[in-house]
Amino acid sequence: MGHGGGGLLSAELMTHLFAPAYGNETLAGLADSAVLSLGGARLAFSTDSYVVRPLFFPGGSIGDLAVNGTVNDLAMSGARAAYLSCAFILEEGTDLTVVGRVAQAIGTAAVAAGVTVATGDTKVVETGHGDGIYLNTAGIGLVPAGVDIRPQRATPGDVVIVSGPVGAHGVAVLSMREGLEFGADVVSDTAPLGGLVAAMLAVTPDLHVLRDPTRGGLAASLNEIATASGTGIEIGERSVPVPEPVAAACAFLGLDPFYVANEGRLVAFVPPDHADAVLAAMRDHPQGAGAAVIGTCVPEHPGLVVARTPLGTTRLLDLPLTEQLPRIC
């Protein structure tokens, strides 16, 4: 399970097993989506699989995740998604009413994201060999001219911005899965981010890095960027917005909200001369209304992420070994 959690074990699986087997420069970037040159156009291409349990949770479903997750992976390269594929892996005996609800959620989310589900596939496995419904989606989109967004471009001096409060998705899924109540409803943040990224690019095409902190949360994404760029990252713990119900739930369960999955948030590394304008544009967009500056990229401690605590001390935000909450997306 740890190898699918987005942490250190996942990174080792990719680095030591898959990357050597496939062996190509395109894959070597290890970004959320690959940027390809084809017929004179620059395309972003991504694929993802969804095994969330339960299938429906406060604020969304596996269908919403399948669309928004792939659209967002494309957006992290600056691309506006155009087409998706969607494959269903169904367990024998799954109620067709449930399948229909998921399919409808996919269609509704695709319309909201401005993307077309152009092709798909269906497979059925025997009872006991699945968990109701698994989904796989792949997507393609066009990358605008002059846009070069990838984790290797993080540079000392970059301002680190998060698009809104973190941790809601993981806690929402966990609350439904375990029947927990935390005094206030926690709703998943699942949402398409293509429009937000377009608003940011309208300010400047020179965004250095974008990442959506899904599995492994904000901490995992920051570690991946620090490792890829060979720079250090410093954030302020109090600067990271965490909803009060999420903070309370994490304190009760012994979780760190920085490691909890999100499905409608992004973290951006922006050159300092554009940071104020980009932040203002984000706050003017519905998906970035809660955007906040959380730190900077620094030349010290290359490859490491450090958080400043309210007590004035610092702590290392390491890449998690596994995921705190499995089956979250």
TrEMBL record:
Residues of the PurM-like N-terminal domain: 32-143
Domain (PurM-like C-terminal) ranges: 156-301
Gene of this entry: hypE
CDD domains xrefs: HypE
Family: Belongs to the HypE family.
Protein name: Hydrogenase expression/formation protein HypE
NCBIfam families reported for this sequence: hypE
InterPro entries hit by this protein: HypE (IPR011854), PurM-like_C_dom (IPR010918), PurM-like_C_sf (IPR036676), PurM-like_N (IPR016188), PurM-like_N_sf (IPR036921)
